[in-house]
């Protein structure tokens, strides 16, 4: 790592582009702080993944993905709240619907990519497909969804002349991404997977292979890689919340690799993110289990209506925003019965009305959603 060279600046006439070195090669770890953090990260990931064995992860997975989608998109400037990700488009203010759609696309891209891992390896094909879904019908949809760029892009600044960073020329993107794919799947050079995905994320953001959406795809592939390698059975670890809370430091650490060839500081930052995110995930699951354990006592005053209430609550763990029509469908009874049950659930503090209106009222499972809100 001490002899690591990140790449070179290549003169392109009136600007210079940064061309990273290939990463599919032998790596030697010689920093004990990295080894220590790696051990801690592995331990916390193991604790987090344990919940896949003991709780019905599929019941809660939509909330995890919704939180990641909203926080990853927030880094790019969108303002959708995690609970709004579960609302219908017509219930979102018109000026916020573009943001809402970007979050929906992220959720769809993550779900589809995880499903594709059953038949596809972690690959450029998988990455391009995720990008295609991510960019459908939103800002940037004209910027080659699902295709690597065929022109120069840049980060920061109004033009190439005052850009904060200029990725490699487009003619080199294919070879660089091919090298990244080989590194992800080639066991010729054994390396701990957490360090591998840290390097993959850095390299991806440095290549910036798409005209738009690179940040969101780069964060999405972290989770995809961990699932593809069996480190996580289900996609329940996300680093976007950590990156958002330390946004400037995140950018600074990536830049430090390119300007000073200091890969160690980036690896330490990334592993710290894994540790903190895994701990947060563990706290979230502990909170979910506490809510579940307390539910019988909370529903006891409802008597026979508790059976229908339980059906609604089980639905709310996967879809924490609801209305009377949905509740009627869940319990298989009339809207009048649904309204009565909702009133009961509001009274005992499980549901909260969030529109403030008298018609088309929307309710949220506030305590549960609170476990996933940004702290």
Brief descriptors of the model:
375 residues; Arc Repressor Mutant, subunit A; 2 domains; 3-stranded antiparallel sheet; 14 helices; 5 strands; globular
What would you say this structure looks like, in words?
The structure is a single chain. With 375 residues, the protein is mainly α. The protein has 2 domains: 7-283, Fic-like fold; 296-370, Winged helix-like DNA-binding domain superfamily/Winged helix DNA-binding domain (Arc Repressor Mutant, subunit A), CATH 1.10.10.10. The chain is 57% helix and 4% strand. The protein contains 14 helices and 5 strands. The protein has helices at 32-54, 57-75, 97-116, 124-134, 173-185, 193-207, 214-228, 240-245, 247-260, 263-299, 306-318, 324-331, 335-347, 366-370, and strands at residues 7-11, 16-20, 321-322, 352-353, 363-364. The strands form 2 sheets. It has a 3-stranded antiparallel sheet. A two-stranded antiparallel ribbon has the order 1-2. β1 (7-11) and β2 (16-20) form a beta hairpin. The longest helix is centred in the C-terminal third of the chain and has 37 residues, at 263-299. The chain is globular. It starts with 6 loop residues before the first strand and ends in a 5-residue tail after the last helix. The model has no long low-confidence stretch (mean pLDDT 91).
